[in-house]
């Protein structure tokens, strides 16, 4: 019974908990419904006219909180029709904060704001969205008096209107004369491929010009830095002849063109060229091309095509998908699907940076010096693309910059880090090449040059003209006495020890201008830059004595000594390589015939 009671009690407790959770859930749903109803009531309430009085000492005024909005299902372009809807109270409070935003719609959004100047003096204001409105187009309709009527005059922004006087700013702006008909609201038509999400600001001309100057100065500085890196690496290509440098230049150039598009700089420099470029390359296509060049540069730079093929295929696959999105953008420009394509491309671009960072991180763990700056390069670009997608705007000296500035700043960091990583990689490659070249001419046991390099140097020396200082070359051939018998008696390991010892003695006795070689089993050679035979004999005799006095100890503690024989000859004006070496060999044989452990001059040596 006791156990049964506990079970019933537990079940009752469980039922109570379930009931409490259900009640809490129902309460939350009811609260959310009430909030939603209040919001709908607020947004559908009749609009109370709110006139924004612009002060005479205007600097910057954010109009976003005062803007009302109406969404047309069709592409309504008639401002008179939009005004009638405003007069009937169809425009709704949109609860804007500091940023004006519109919905994803196939129709057109109309915005309205009532302005009135505090001053009666004529002046001009600048209305700005603080961004480059290209994929999202805004058209301003200013009410003006025409006789006894008020009509709306359309005005395109200064970046895109061929006939409008340029305002010298890379953001979409409008000039408003204060003589407009203030009894009717200013209307703004928002259409294009993307919704608007930007502050709507009214500024004095002085403030607008100051902000434009700051934007242009900082943006030009960043663009100039990237252009300098492009030219620097392009020039370097002709010295190093590495295709990676050309791919760097191609990637950086493609990124520059894309960023000049989305930052408005291309339109600022040349409106006609910029608009023509937009018609040929959508920003999505430009981004896809830049991503493709960047991925190709990465695959070649990291050698993924042979070191980790599947990662290379993944990197290029993501880039190819980005290009496909760029191609698809041409057919979706007038579709409601375009905003989703636009966001997808931002995600794919960030993903591309991530899939590049992963194989690079593996190389960093393996100790490759260039991997870390390469990670920082792509990591900064990925961060810039994420901030671009989120619509984050930065301020410098109190001046806000378009969202494209995120990628521009990230690109400068990326290009600097990539250039640095490219330099480190070339250093490593050259170091490896130098090491391989050194190994190809070096004897592995003694560290001296090998026989192949000996004959190369002799060939070069005999072809040289006689130096003006009267110096010449001496060839020395050296052989360890009875070395085969020593090897047979004491083993090859101890024989190698003797060879190393002689190599050390030779290295410590020759000068910087001299060269030492091991040309056979127990055979060594020297090429000495000398003024006379006496000077050469002195060097070789010093080597012979040092070797004779050297002691080799066996594992059993036995102390052994060895000796050498050497032949020396001087280079003659008409010598060939064979004659030069041959006389030194003959002198060596003479030293052996003379009882070994001595140095003899070659025939005809002075």
Question: Can you summarize this structure?
Answer:
With 606 residues, this protein is an alpha+beta fold. Helix content is 54%, strand content 18%. Helix 9 (309-331) packs antiparallel against helix 10 (338-365).
Report on this model:
The chain is α+β, with helices and mostly antiparallel strands. The chain has 4 domains: 1-45; 51-199, Sandwich (Immunoglobulin-like), CATH 2.60.40; 213-438; 451-601, Alpha-Beta Plaits (2-Layer Sandwich). It has 17 helices and 22 strands. Strands 1, 3, 4, 6, 8, 9 and 11 form a 7-stranded mixed beta sheet that branches. Helix 10 (338-365) packs antiparallel against helix 11 (371-390) and helix 11 packs antiparallel against helix 12. The chain is rod-shaped.
Q: Which word captures the global form? A: rod-shaped
Mean pLDDT: 81
Largest sheet: 7 strands, mixed
Supply the number of helical segments. Answer: 17
Q: What is the end-to-end distance?
A: 126 Å
Observed structural traits:
606 residues, alpha+beta, Immunoglobulin-like, seven-stranded mixed sheet, five-stranded mixed sheet, 17 helices, rod-shaped, disordered N terminus
Structural topology:
Blueprint: H1 2-44, E1 51-54, E2 60-62, E3 68-72, H2 79-87, E4 92-93, E5 100-101, E6 108-117, E7 124-128, E8 136-146, E9 149-156, E10 173-177, E11 186-192, E12 197-198, E13 201-204, H3 205-240, H4 243-262, H5 265-269, H6 271-280, H7 283-301, H8 304-307, H9 309-331, H10 338-365, H11 371-390, E14 395-396, E15 399-400, H12 405-440, H13 451-463, E16 472-480, H14 483-490, H15 492-509, E17 515-518, E18 523-530, H16 533-549, E19 552-553, E20 559-560, E21 564-570, H17 577-593, E22 599-601
Parallel strand pairs: 1-6, 21-22
Antiparallel strand pairs: 2-13, 3-4, 3-6, 5-12, 6-11, 7-10, 7-13, 8-9, 8-11, 14-15, 16-18, 16-21, 17-18, 19-20
Helix pairs in contact: 3-4, 3-12, 4-7, 4-12, 7-9, 7-10, 9-10, 10-11, 11-12, 14-15, 15-16
């Amino acid at each position: 019974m006791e156990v049964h009671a506990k079970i019933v009690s537990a079940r009752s407790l469980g039922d109570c908990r379930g009931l409490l959770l259900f009640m809490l859930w129902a309460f939350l749903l009811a609260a959310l419904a009430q909030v939603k109803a209040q919001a709908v009531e607020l947004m559908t309430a009749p609009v109370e006219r709110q006139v924004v009085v612009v002060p005479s000492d205007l600097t910057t005024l954010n109009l976003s909180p005062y803007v009302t909005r109406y969404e047309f299902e069709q592409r309504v372009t008639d401002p008179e029709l939009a005004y009638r809807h405003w007069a009937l109270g169809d425009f709704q409070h949109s609860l804007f904060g500091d940023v004006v935003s519109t919905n994803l719609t196939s129709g057109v959004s109309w915005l309205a704001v009532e302005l009135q100047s505090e001053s009666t003096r004529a002046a001009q204001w600048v209305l700005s969205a603080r961004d480059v409105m290209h994929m999202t187009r805004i058209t301003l309709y200013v009410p003006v008096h025409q006789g006894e009527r008020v009509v709306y005059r359309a005005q395109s922004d200064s970046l895109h209107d061929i006939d409008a006087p340029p305002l010298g700013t890379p953001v979409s702006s409008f000039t408003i004369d204060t003589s407009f008909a203030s009894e009717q609201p200013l209307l703004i038509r928002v259409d294009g491929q993307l919704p608007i999400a930007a502050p709507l600001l009214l500024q004095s001309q002085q403030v607008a010009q100051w902000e434009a100057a700051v934007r242009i100065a900082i943006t030009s500085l960043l663009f100039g830095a990237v252009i300098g890196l492009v030219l620097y690496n392009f020039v370097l290509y002709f010295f190093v002849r590495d295709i990676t440098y050309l791919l760097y230049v191609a990637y950086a150039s493609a990124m520059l063109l894309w960023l000049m598009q989305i930052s408005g700089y291309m339109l600022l420099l040349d409106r006609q060229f910029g608009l023509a470029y937009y018609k040929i390359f959508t920003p999505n296509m430009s981004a896809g091309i830049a991503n493709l060049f960047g991925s190709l540069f990465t695959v070649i730079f990291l050698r993924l095509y042979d070191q980790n093929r599947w990662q290379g295929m993944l990197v290029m696959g993501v880039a190819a998908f980005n290009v496909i999105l760029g191609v698809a953008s041409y057919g979706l420009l007038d579709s409601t699907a375009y905003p989703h394509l636009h966001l997808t491309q931002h995600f794919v671009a960030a993903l591309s940076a991530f899939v590049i960072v992963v194989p690079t991180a593996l190389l960093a763990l393996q100790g490759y010096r260039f991997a870390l700056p390469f990670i920082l390069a792509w990591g900064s670009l990925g961060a810039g693309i994420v901030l671009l997608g989120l619509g984050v705007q930065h301020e410098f000296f109190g001046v806000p910059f378009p969202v494209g500035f995120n990628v521009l700043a990230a690109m400068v960091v990326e290009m600097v880090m990539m250039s640095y990583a490219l330099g480190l990689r070339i250093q490593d490659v050259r170091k490896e090449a130098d090491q391989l070249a050194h190994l190809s001419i070096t004897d592995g046991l003694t560290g001296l040059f090998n026989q192949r390099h000996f004959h190369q140097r002799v060939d070069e020396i005999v072809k040289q003209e006689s130096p003006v200082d009267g110096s010449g070359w001496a060839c020395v051939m050296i052989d360890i006495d009875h070395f085969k018998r020593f090897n047979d008696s004491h083993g090859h390991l101890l024989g190698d020890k003797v060879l190393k010892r002689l190599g050390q003695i030779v290295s410590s006795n020759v000068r910087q201008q001299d060269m030492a070689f091991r040309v056979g089993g127990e055979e060594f050679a020297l090429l000495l830059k000398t003024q006379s035979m006496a000077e050469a004999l002195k060097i070789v005799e010093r080597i012979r004595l040092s070797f004779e006095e050297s002691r080799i100890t066996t594992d059993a503690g036995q102390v052994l000594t060895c000796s050498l024989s050497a032949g020396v000859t001087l280079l003659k004006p008409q010598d060939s390589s064979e004659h030069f070496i041959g006389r030194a060999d003959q002198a060596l044989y003479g030293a052996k015939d003379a009882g070994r452990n001595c140095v003899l001059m070659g025939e005809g040596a002075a």
